[in-house]
C-alpha cells in the first residue's frame, strides 16, 4: 500500500487529528497578528521572540523545572510587551536592538543547553526546538485544549478590536487623538503575540515562525487591495498551507515545520508570479 | 475650547517650547506658523493629548470622538493595503464615535470624498495613489470625523493650487457653520483666512488677531 493510500488510515489516528486541529488554529492566529506585524514593518519581532522563548526553555532546563511552559511564557510575554512599548523598528537603534536580542537569546539558550542538559543528544534537542521536529505529532489533549482556547481568544480579540487595530496600525497618532486606548491595545497584542509564538514553536520550531507570520500576509497583499480582504485571504492561505504541509509531511515523511514553510514559500511564489503577470497585462 | 497656561511642551530631556500660554475659543480659525523645527506640530500633538506637557496646563474641551485630525503623511504607510473608504471610515466605526450605523458612516464618507473632489477614489488602493491624492484622502478622513474641532497639520502639502483654493473655501464655510479650526501652515493664503494667528519663534508664542470673524 502506497503512502498516499495510507492517508485515510493516518487521518484516523487521534494524534494526527489533534495535530491538524492545532495546526489550523495556530495558522489562523499567526496570520491575524502577522498582518499587524508586517504592516508595522515589525516582521522580525516574531523571530526575536521565538529566540527569547528558546532561551527561556534553556533556562527552564537549567533550573530543572518540571513544566517549562510557565517560565517560557512569562519571559517571552515580558520581552514582547517591552518591544511593543518601546517600538522596535523605524530607526537603526530599534532595528539593531532587535537583532541583539534575537542572537543574544539564541546564543545564551544554546550555551545553557550545552552546559546544563542531561540529555545524551543535545544537538538533536536543539534542532528539535529550532525546527519543530515531530513534536506537533505528539500533542496531548491538554495541548489541543490550550490551542483551542488561545485561538478563540485571539479571534475574539481581532473581531472585537478590528477597527481599532486597523486604525492603530495605520495611524497611531490619529488613533490617540480621537481617544482610542492605544497603549492597552498594543499591550494586549504583545501578550497574545508572545503566547501564540510559544505555542507555535511546537508546530514549526523557533526559527521558522517568522515564515508562518509573513508568507500568508505578503501573498494576500499581492492579491487584494482592501484591508478586510487581505486579512481574510491571509487567514485562508495560512490555514490551507499548514494543512497541505502537514499532509505532505505525513505522506512523504519529511519534517513538519520545514514542509509547511516550503508550501508557504511555493504558494507565495506562485501568487507573486500570477500577480506580476496580471499587472503587466 | 483650548487653553494652555505656562506650558512647557516637548519630549523628556528635550523641551521644544517653554512658557506657552494660548487660548483658542469656540468658532476660532487659528493658524500656527513659524520656522522649521520651532515646535508647531509638537504643539498640535500636545493639544490633542498625543504628547503630555512637561509642565503647566493644557486643556481641550472638545470630545475626542468629535475631533477631525489631519496628520502628516507617513511614508512607512505608503504600502498599507486599504481602500480610501476604509481609511476614511475606520475612525468613525470605532467605539465612542457619534456615528453608530453603517449608513451614517457611509454618508459621512461620501460627503467628505465629495468635498475633496475624490469621489472616484472611494474604492481605490491607497498604495497606488500619488502623494497629493493621499493627502486629499487624509483630509477627507479629518473632515468626516470633525464635528466641533478640525485640526490640520500642513494641509496644503503635496496638493495642487486649485485643490488648495477649494480647501480654503471649504474651511471658511465650515468655520462660518461653527466649526473651530486649528491649523499649522506656512501657506500665506491660510494666514489670510485666519481669525487668529499664532507665531512660534525664538521669542516664544505670540498671538495676533487676524481677519474678523
C-alpha-based Rg of chain A, rounded:
19 Å
Q: Count the beta strands of chain A.
A: 0
Within the largest sheet of chain B, what's the order of strands? 5-6-7-3-8-9
Largest sheet report of chain B:
6 strands, mixed
Please give a handful of descriptors for the protein shown.
heterodimer; A: 281 residues; mainly alpha; globular; B: alpha/beta; six-stranded mixed β-sheet; 28% strand
What report would you give on this structure?
The complex is a heterodimer of chains A (281) and B (213). By secondary structure, chain A is mainly alpha-helical. Chain A is built from 13 helices and no strands. Chain A has helices spanning 7-11, 14-39, 43-62, 69-86, 92-116, 122-131, 141-160, 162-170, 172-177, 182-204, 209-223, 227-252, 256-280. Chain B is of the alpha/beta class. Chain B has helices at 40-47, 84-93, 102-115, 131-145, 161-176, 188-193, and strands at residues 2-11, 14-24, 29-34, 55-60, 67-70, 149-153, 180-184, 196-201, 204-209. The two termini of chain B are 16 Å apart. At the A-B interface, α8, α9 and α12 of A face α2 of B.
Write the layout of secondary structure elements.
The complex is a heterodimer of chains A (281) and B (213).
Chain A (H helix, E strand, L loop, with lengths): L6 H5 L2 H26 L3 H20 L6 H18 L5 H25 L5 H10 L9 H20 L1 H9 L1 H6 L4 H23 L4 H15 L3 H26 L3 H25 L1
Helix pairs in contact in A: 2-3, 2-7, 2-10, 2-11, 2-12, 3-4, 3-5, 3-10, 3-11, 4-10, 11-12, 11-13, 12-13
Chain B lengths: L1 E10 L2 E11 L4 E6 L5 H8 L7 E6 L6 E4 L13 H10 L8 H14 L15 H15 L3 E5 L7 H16 L3 E5 L3 H6 L2 E6 L2 E6 L4
Parallel strand pairs in B: 3-7, 3-8, 5-6, 6-7
Antiparallel strand pairs in B: 1-2, 1-4, 8-9
Helix pairs in contact in B: 2-3, 2-4, 3-4
Give the structure's gist in a few sentences.
Chain A is mainly alpha-helical. In chain A, 81% of the residues lie in helices and 0% in strands. In chain A, helix 3 crosses helix 10.
